[in-house]
Structures are given as structure tokens and as C-alpha cells.
Amino acid sequence: MHKQIEQALEKLASMSSARKEKTRAILSKYVEDQMSLDEAYYELLEEELVPMPSRCGMYAKVEGDEANLKRRIREKLSLA
Hints:
single chain, mainly alpha, about 0% strand
């Protein structure tokens, strides 16, 4: 999940304005603790803002440093 959210973050600048706004809205809710990491990820999937993982390529949920992920999102959103 972290990896796919980070990939979406990296592609933010090259997205169309509509996709960029949807992505920014979802990630903003996540960093403001209005939704969990899981909720943000599944909303990005539903909006087709991150690719649907193939069954064999699904990532296991890694208990990573969410504070670091949120920091990176805040930095990217302030630049985009």
C-alpha cells in the first residue's frame, strides 16, 4: 500500500487536473487523519488513481512508518 501511494504521489505532477484534484483530496484526508491508510488506498483504487494489483502481484500490508509517508505526502502536495 505504501509503495502504491508513493507511486501515485510521484505521478501527481503528470496527472490530468481532474485526477490530480481527486488524488490530492484523498491524500489530504489521509494526512489530516480523516481516514485510515486502508481507506485512502481503497478510495484511490475505486477512483482508478492507482492501478488495481493483480492477484499474484498484491502487496502484503507492511507496517511501515506512516508518519514518514504522511510527511512525504504533505511535502508533495505543497509543491503540486
